[in-house]
Structure formats: C-alpha cells, structure tokens
C-alpha cells in the first residue's frame, strides 16, 4: 500500500557545532507505525515519545490519542457537522477590556449555554479560548486561556494582513503580512515600537517555487528548502546561509508517515532538533539540541507563526489547538459542507492549500468528467486542452464547469478559449513552441477572463499541473502541440 512502517537514522561520531565530540546512542531516528484495515494510523512507537495509540469513530474522525507510558491523553467529540466540541464551554462571552475598540458590532455574536458552536459552524469557545468573527466568517478576535488577546484584520480577499497581540504583561505586538496576486505570502514584519529592541527577526521575506516555499531570509541569513520530490510538499533538506560567519549549513528533515517533520539532523546524521505534536498538529515539544536550529514547518505546506501560534496554510490560516481553519473556505462547498473543517484527522489527511482535504495524493475534480453537458447551460472545460496535450486521457482529465458553448461568442466558455487562442497566436507564426509553464500562466488568465474567481482560477492551474505531472510533463518542457484557432477574431471568420 506504500504506507510507511519503519524509520531509522543513525549518527556518526562527529564534532558538534561547539567543537565537542557528539555520539548519539540509538540513532537520531527510530520509529514504527501500525495501521488498521481502513488505512488509519492506530499506533506509533518512537524511541523518545514512547507508544501512542489512536482511536477513530466510524467516519474516520479521531476520538483519542493516548500515551500509556507518559499518562498523557487527548480525547475529542464532534457534532454531526464535524465541529469539534469543547469540554470547557463558557456560559457567555467575556467583556474583555479593549475589545469594543476593535469590534463595534457584536450583534452577530451568540452563545448558548452548553454549546461552543455558533451560526455557520463558527467555533466560539474551545478549552478556555474564546473567538469572535466578522460578518464574512473571518476570526477577528481570540482570547487565550493565559489572558493574551489577539486581534486580526483582513483585506478584501479575506487574507490576514495585520495582527495586534496584547500580552498579559501589558505590551502589544503588531505584525503585518503581505501577499502577491496568487495568495502567496511575501513577507511578515513586526511594526510595534518594542520590535527594535528584540533580537528576533523583525522582518521575514519569502520566495516561492510555484506553491512551495523555496526560501526565506532575515537579517540572520537565508534558508533554502529542498523537497522529497519535484511535486511533493514534504521538506527534505534545509540550506542555511549564515550572514554572521558567511558559512553554509546543511540540515535534513525526517518526516513521519504524513510528512510532518519530527527530527532534523546535520549532514553527518547528528540530531539537531526533534519535536512532538498534539493530535491536531500543534508542536508541544520543541527540543533544540542545537539552539540556533530553525524548523518552521508543521502539517504539509504549513508555516508556523510564533507570534500568533497559527499556521499559514497558503490560502488560509490553521489553528492547531482546535484543528480547524480560522476563516471560511474560499472555494465554498467544493471544499466540503463545513467551511472551517480541516479533515477528519491529520494522520492520513492533508490540505496543501487550505482549500480541500486530500487522502494521500488524491486529486479532486470540480465536476465529473463524463460527456460535455453538465446542466443549466454549463459545459465541461478541460484545463489541459486535448488538442494541446493529445496524449492525455480525455475521460480522466481535469475539468471545470463554464457556462455556454466554447463556440458561442459572449459566453464565459468562449471567453476562456478566446484568451487561450490569443496566447497561441503569439507562437503560431514564429515557429517557436511555448513552455508548459507559459501555458499554465495563460490558463490562469483564460479562467479569469471567463469570470472565474482568483482563487478558483489558481486552484484550476494547480489541478492542471497535477495532471501534467501524472503524465510526466514538467513546466520547463515545450508544449506537445500548438492547436489551430477555435474562436473567431473580432471582425474575422474562423477557418
């Protein structure tokens, strides 16, 4: 079945970063996994954390995670809409000092005694933490059990752009975030006055390779990431270019069965870092053998923000304490009935973009690819056009529903084809063939020209790329074929 069952990594006798001889007894990594007949992970045995047993309900939702050796346990219950239920539900919303300055309209907030789920599956309380949302379903306030208050501000695309964090000690941290048009986070920066006396980086810049984080850099230097495969989101290695000493350091990630980093070692196999996680992916043990190590990854394609405790998950932010997203799914019902749910569990499910859960490497399609007509005037539009990719299976290809006929001007379906035809025209008479990468950019523009939203268009490109990878087509390859024009130019007739 391809499931991971055993992991072992041994260390050599080498010098530590402080110059002392380092020998790791038993190796840096030793871990095993057991699964039930449904493929659910039911047990992990780790040389450091011990044996952890998992129990699931009939829907595959995690019910408990128990470590008998340490005595620690986590237990969960859910309502029919897959909302996690708290064992510490508050009787009412606390009147927090300063909240009224940020939240002028509280009429939408409701709380029923004995419940922690509000309208639209919005989590209002969970184990001592309280939440408030705006009219669009974005979490705009969170009060933690220790008294820390967090305020969140979003742009018109519902992307988090500012956070104000009021610490129990009285000081306030202010962070701002910036994104590119594709939703990729480009930077985060601390803006409050105390930022300049902190030794931690005040500004972090991010560089992307498609939808994967390629590099981040601060005043300390740059971190470059390598992944296990060219279409994978599991980190394999980290290259740190240290601005202080001008040297380069290579580290390796050791991931569990679902791609979560559990250990980091240097190039000789010496342990640098190891961590333990809760059942929903929050790092609860952060053990740094080498104190300068940097390990920002959590669940696949998630980046940990220390200032808030949230995980940046491309199009949304994930809260690992409650195991759900902090705002509604941008693709709506395509991602599931519950707009905040991550998945039944994080042991066999992943969500690379904060849009839709996938089991292993499953591919989702918006519509079934059978015939051309869906209904209500909507037709299937192949993301990888059959004349451009003639060897792709038309029956199994990735499609999206667009209104109208591809040959009827004025319809969204025709607009998408017209946009692609204009892209092809640039190359038809030159004798040159564009790359697949250029096609994917043109595909995004064609979907936007058809009236498809920014996020859904981007998801469409991701789906097209996955189909290309399945057929061993890479972005740097030339297009297999340049088709004839299928739409009419203004004032001209089609051949």
Automatic annotation (TrEMBL):
Residues 252-283 form the RHS protein conserved region domain. Signal peptide: none annotated. Pfam families: RHS. Residues 476-495 are annotated as: Disordered. Gene3D superfamilies: RHS repeat-associated core. InterPro entries: RHS, Rhs_assc_core, T6SS_VgrG/RHS. It comes from the Bacteria. This is RHS protein conserved region domain-containing protein.
